[in-house]
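pinging the channel bc i need a second pair of eyes. not urgent but kinda urgent?? the chain im working w is below, pasted from the shared doc
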Amino acid sequence: MVCSSAERLNIGQAAARSGVSAKMIRYYESLGLLPKVGRTESGYRQYGAAEVHTLRFIRRARTLGFGMAEIAALLQLWQDRERASKEVKRIALERIEDLEKKIGEMQAMKNTLENLALGCQGDDRPDCPILDDLASQRPELPKSRPLDQILP
């Protein structure tokens, strides 16, 4: 449900309509991602449709993995009707590059765990190559190459 442009919501109502917790709304406000809003005479924050829309924008950006600095840049671009879309695309492509790197690292972890699990008998014997590997004093493996290319 979207609020009308004149309707004012307290933080709990804004949280419910945006899908962002009240705690996170306060946090986003403290970072400057969400502009300071008006308050009632008793000091309660009041949010309108624009703030709820901004909160939904932030929530969606977070679900796509953007960090706070990236979200701040995207918010500025979103609010600038004369923006160059190339800036938005650049930020998105950087996010994709970061995701691809993380996917590669996670795939390497998965491959390593699969290989270790294959070597484990999983029976009543106490010996376990998984625990042996975890207890080994191996130095940190480089992250630029998949672990299955590094491990024997």
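so The chain has two domains: 1-65, 99-152. and The two ends are 56 Å apart (CA to CA). — does that match what u expected or am i reading it wrong
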